């Protein structure tokens, strides 16, 4: 039987784990809340599952405990930072706060960040943007990563290059977080850990043959781009676009020696204030109508339509009220951390 945990208890537990490395308390709390938000929204491969890795980076010095990002450029409505391997979730929240503080004046604020330690789940940053009634667009790429092969190739070139977007509507926002690969690397790793095959042939082995076996990826294979074997040229083109936005604009990526960067990210962030373009009421009238029309579309099966944001927002609200249901392997990992650090794991509430 699955167990539920208080969201606040999980946040305090993860925060204590991060603070145990010497990370300042406020930064530790932001880190913990970011991973928790991912699980609240249902993105379980990049939520509290990532605590262990981030602790290791902080303990080893791969993530900097102290300091501020260097400002490389700042024109008010756009800025570029070098994070120099500061913890990714803290840096991105810092950039979002800066953008939100400026967006009422500028209407649109765009930011790039180079050499940020891994920023985890992009969707985890969206609730803050929605709470400010803004539109948000966030993407990242990993200069040291080559996991996704272009259409027609067996050579991995791109990183997963996720993109997240949010826009206020009525009962729930339009919200999504998707990779430019057919499946995320986290799901491939989870399948390998559990000894399972993937639901479809989302991979190529090192000889370029389609595969559903995660072992083929670990043995020099690659993940297919969005669009799969037939239409992967679309996903490859989008991957290139996102690497231009995140790597080229930040000035750090494929052209550089990134052999020591591991999972560090290049980031592109844009926040838009709808009121800069006209009435907020008219904006919400349009986004609400879009979501309602989508919901009213007739399903072509017995399955309900998936409207981006509906399930995630409903799940987030339910788990904040009734407790967070963690994926079983996450519970196991957190219990190991509690044992190794002496920091008590929260008690399950059901």
Automatic annotation (TrEMBL):
<dbReference type="Pfam" id="PF02615">
    <property type="entry name" value="Ldh_2"/>
</dbReference>
<keyword id="KW-0560">Oxidoreductase</keyword>
<dbReference type="InterPro" id="IPR003767">
    <property type="entry name" value="Malate/L-lactate_DH-like"/>
</dbReference>
<dbReference type="GO" id="GO:0016491">
    <property type="term" value="F:oxidoreductase activity"/>
</dbReference>
<protein>
    <submittedName>
        <fullName>Ldh family oxidoreductase</fullName>
    </submittedName>
</protein>
<dbReference type="InterPro" id="IPR036111">
    <property type="entry name" value="Mal/L-sulfo/L-lacto_DH-like_sf"/>
</dbReference>
<dbReference type="InterPro" id="IPR043144">
    <property type="entry name" value="Mal/L-sulf/L-lact_DH-like_ah"/>
</dbReference>
<comment type="similarity">
    <text>Belongs to the LDH2/MDH2 oxidoreductase family.</text>
</comment>
<dbReference type="InterPro" id="IPR043143">
    <property type="entry name" value="Mal/L-sulf/L-lact_DH-like_NADP"/>
</dbReference>
């Amino acid at each position: 039987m699955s167990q539920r945990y208080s969201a606040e208890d999980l946040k305090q537990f993860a925060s204590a784990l991060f603070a145990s490395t010497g990370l300042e308390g406020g930064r530790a709390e932001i880190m913990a809340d970011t991973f928790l938000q991912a699980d609240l929204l249902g993105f379980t491969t990049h939520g509290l599952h990532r605590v262990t890795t981030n602790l290791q980076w902080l303990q080893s010095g791969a993530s900097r405990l102290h300091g501020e990002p260097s400002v490389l450029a700042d024109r008010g409505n756009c800025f570029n930072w070098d994070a120099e391997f500061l913890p990714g979730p803290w840096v991105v929240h810092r950039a979002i706060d800066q953008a939100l503080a400026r967006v009422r004046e500028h209407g649109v604020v765009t930011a790039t960040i180079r050499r940020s330690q891994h920023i985890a789940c992009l969707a985890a940053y969206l609730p803050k943007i929605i709470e400010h009634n803004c539109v948000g667009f966030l993407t990242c790429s990993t200069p040291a990563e080559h996991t996704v092969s272009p259409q027609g190739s067996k050579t991995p070139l791109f990183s997963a290059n996720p993109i997240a977007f949010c826009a206020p509507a009525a009962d729930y926002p339009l919200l999504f977080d998707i990779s430019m690969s057919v499946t995320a690397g986290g799901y491939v790793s989870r399948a390998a850990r559990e000894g399972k095959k993937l639901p479809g042939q989302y991979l190529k082995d090192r000889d370029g043959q389609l595969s559903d076996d995660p072992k083929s990826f670990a043995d020099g294979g690659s993940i297919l781009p969005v669009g799969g074997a037939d239409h992967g040229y679309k996903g490859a083109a989008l991957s290139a676009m996102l690497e231009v936005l995140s790597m080229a604009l930040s000035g750090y990526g494929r052209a550089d020696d990134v052999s020591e960067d591991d999972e560090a990210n290049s980031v592109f962030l844009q926040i838009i204030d709808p009121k800069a373009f006209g009435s907020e009421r008219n904006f919400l009238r349009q986004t609400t109508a879009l979501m309602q029309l989508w919901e009213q579309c007739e399903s072509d099966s017995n399955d309900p339509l998936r409207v981006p944001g509906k399930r995630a927002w409903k799940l987030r609200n339910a788990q904040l009220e009734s407790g967070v249901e963690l994926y079983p392997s996450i519970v196991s990992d957190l219990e190991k951390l509690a044992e190794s650090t002496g920091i008590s794991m929260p008690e399950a509430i059901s």
